[in-house]
Structure formats: C-alpha cells, structure tokens
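QA checklist item 7 of 12: single-chain prediction sanity check.
[x] sequence parsed
[x] length recorded as 211
[x] structure emitted
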Amino acid sequence: MDDDRAAVRATYERIADHFAATREYPWPEVESFCAGRHADRAVDIGCGNGRHTALLADHAETVVGVDVSRRLLGLARERAPGGSFLAGDASALPLTDDCAELAVYVATLHHLPTRELRRRSLDEVARVLTPDGEALVSAWSTAHDAFDASADATEGFDTDVDWTLPGGETVPRFYHIYAPAEFDADIAASELEVVDSRISSGNCYAVVTPA
C-alpha cells in the first residue's frame, strides 16, 4: 500500500513541471463552489500547482495547500505566494482538527490506490472541517467520455492514464474511475454528509459537510 502511494508521488514529481504548465485556470465547478463563500481558513487538498489555492485565497483570510509532490508545492508557492503549503498525504492530512471552514478536494481522490485510503481521506476532510464547514470533492467518473463504461454502473475500476511529456515519453498515472453510485456510497460511509451531488464534465462532484 505504502509503495503504491510512493509510486503516485514519484509520478507527479516526474511530470510536475509539464503538468503544472497545462493547468492554468481553475475549474468552473470550483469557481461556482467558491462564489459567495468566505472563510477564515481554507484548505486545498491535492493542490498541485496551486491554481485552486490562488482562487481560495480570494475567499479566505488564510489558505493552506497540501500535496504529496514537493516539486508541485514549489510551483504552487510561486502561483499563490500568500498561501501556506505543506507536504502531506490526503489520507493523513498534516492539519489539526476543525481548522478550516472551506476546503477543496478535487482531482485527487481518484489517485489513492485503495478504497480504504480513499475512504480514510474522506474522513480526513471531515476531521479538518469545522462543524459548519463545507468542502467540494471530485473524482473522475465512468460517465466520462474517455471511458467505455456505463454511468449507471455501481462499481468503478482501476486503470492507468498516460501522461505524455514533451518529446513523446509517456508516464502512466494510477486512477480509480468512480461509478457515480460508488462515489455516493463512499461518501455516505464516511464522516461526511452530502449537501449536493452531481456529474459535471465527466466528473463526480459533491458538496459535503461534516456529518
């Protein structure tokens, strides 16, 4: 299990610079979630190059980005210089309980290599949120056009999705592709409660709050 997570970390260290260069703008779904919300502290879990950390900085007094890739954290510090950044695993966040009123956990859940770790990470979201805090969680879905799968499936599947570096080298990235029903079930089994759940752009999204 630990070796699998180390492999995910090594993958993003390897592709960090090219990956960051292709991730310029926040996702519209994250912008919609943040609109009208303001917090003393916000957390970007799996912050990557900091594009959503920078967005959260407009909606919180302080913002913290967490990622397993130290290279991506370095790029995120350049993009959101007012933020604080920590190296850490989504299944064991280096944050205290009840420390944030707002959180974004997007495009990261599906990279955790086991269901146990994915569910543990959802409990971690609940742990770091204040009782009235809210988070946006997302994962790739079987409804995505990239997959020959049914959006009505009850179970997802594991796969590798290649990242192509300049020059043509491909680097496989682990993904768990969630069936929407499975995504909802994993959240229901966690310490989170769903406020709203939907499919958008081939991704499962849920606005959640601690149960």
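[x] summary fact logged: The mean pLDDT is 94.
[ ] second reviewer sign-off
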